[in-house]
Amino acid sequence: IGVVECKKVARVKAGKTYKSHAPVHIVVNKVGPFNNPTETYRYYSLPFCSSHATEEEEAQQAEEEKVDLSDVQRSAREGGLRHKQRLGESIVGDRRETSPYEITFLDSVDWRLLCKTTLEKPELVKFKEAIHNNYFFEMFVEDLPMWGYIGDASGEDFIMGEVEGSQTYLFPHLHFRLGYNDNKIVSAKVTTDLDRRVDITNVEVPKTVQFSYSVEWVEEELEWKNRMSLYAESRFLPSSFEIHWLSIINSFVLVLLLTAFLTIILLRVLKNDFSRYMELDDDAMEEEESGWKLIHGDVFRFPPNSALFCSAVGTGNQLMCVTLFHLCLALTGIISTTKRGSILAGVVVLYCLSGVVGGYTSVKLYRQMNGKQWVRCVLLTATLFPGPCVAVFMWVNSVALAHGSTSALPFTAILTVTALYVFICFPLTVFGGILAKNYASADFNAPTRTTKVSREIPTEIPWYRGRTFQVLIAGFLPFSAIYIEVHYIFASMWGHQIYTLFGILLLAFVLLVIVTSFITVALLYFQLAREDHQWWWATYINGGMTGLFIYVYSFYYYFQRSGMSGLLQSSFYFGYMAIVSFAFFLMLGSAGFQFSLTFVKYIYGRIKCD
Length: 610
Hints:
Elements: E1 23-24, E2 26-33, E3 41-42, H1 55-65, H2 87-91, E4 97-98, E5 103-104, E6 109-119, H3 121-132, E7 135-141, E8 144-149, E9 151-154, E10 167-170, E11 173-181, E12 184-192, E13 198-199, E14 207-219, H4 245-279, H5 282-288, H6 306-332, H7 342-353, H8 355-368, H9 374-383, H10 386-403, H11 411-439, H12 467-493, H13 502-529, H14 536-561, H15 567-604
């Protein structure tokens, strides 16, 4: 591809049909510690070869290697030129660049010289530190990723690190194994040659290193559309996170049993309450009246901070729509899960497009609560979730910039996301609020009248009926049902796995919403039975507690199930997990409240009130 140095190189479209001897481009992406998937740096931040050896240099070294290069097909390539990238690729920290590897279609090569260079102390120190930090590199052929390690260290102490007698080796030779079918590339793998490793333990003495490569073309039966299936079996990716189907089934059974149990208990209790209240005459009612029936004049008293409450409900509805729609698109293949960053880019775009849902539902509920400052409600809805996202992003992006990491979002990507919010998300949120103000019904339709003076709430209650215990139960039970799937998603988000089980994920999410709603209603019944009528915020918090449990689990995963470390990785991990947990809090809190509201209207609409 001909380019001017200041311009970015156009990407090679996946699925290209090659002719014999056509150039095949190896795209280099990034390097970084294997255990810290977010801590990545430009490939050329390490002193790799950015230009290919000349024909004369290759011929000289070929004599020493006893290799015949007379049939080699040459295609001059310059390394270090930036590639054009999609928004999603920039978000996940990709920084694709050209490489000088001269590879042509169907031309296998036993050995070729990439470059011969003398590494001085600064370059040796860079390589040595990278090897001791377990750095890996990532390359691409079309959209097929390849991974390998930069080097290896032997004789190291697990705690002390490098000790006397330990050695550090650099892998300067790469072997590319490329599979093809019907003149299309369907597989790509890179390996290192231990026999050609170079000892760089002593960095005080300059070292002459010969970087080289070999190419092997293999005909495969694998079809091009199934090319990504090989990565599920890749040995480079950790196999310890393989999903356990028995545990998934166990989780689903737990959810179903819990839902059935709560349904039976609630129906029996409510049936007894209804029959007792409906059969008593007015005199007996005054004597027997207690529990949830007693607070019928206070149960529909609107909560404090109603604008914030309605905004939280609207934002939760918006995030719920984004999640369900995104999972459906991923399940149907409309959003490609194999394209780098497509999941994150899809979330950003769908959130902006669904702004109308958040604006409409929040203002509609706010007006039903007799709210007058609907503009304030819309502004809160538009900033309730993006605000914390921007705060976390500013911190982690600053840390990434300070470390020189590719995880720092480039200015063009920041500009794109900002434009999406300013010109699509915010106007649609305002538009949804205007629709609700002008067309949605402002009648709350409360089945009972609210008294002017609120009833005093009893304070002497057993510990197991208190708020602390209820909050723990509300978060623990739903989380226990999705624990296995959460673990697998963590391994995908903060590891090197490609998540593909979106059907199971959609099922798990739907069941999570159902069981959260049922548990919230059960706890609400016990709250009303003890004559506590301040249930609005309580049901929202109870429903959203699963989000807090996910964040608590993230600490366990970080320290016990991963090898992540360092300020950069920790900032990204705990910062963005806080955002994910907050999103779950808003979604499940909104679902729990709205289910509870339906339940309260139902039971109070079917009893005799004074």
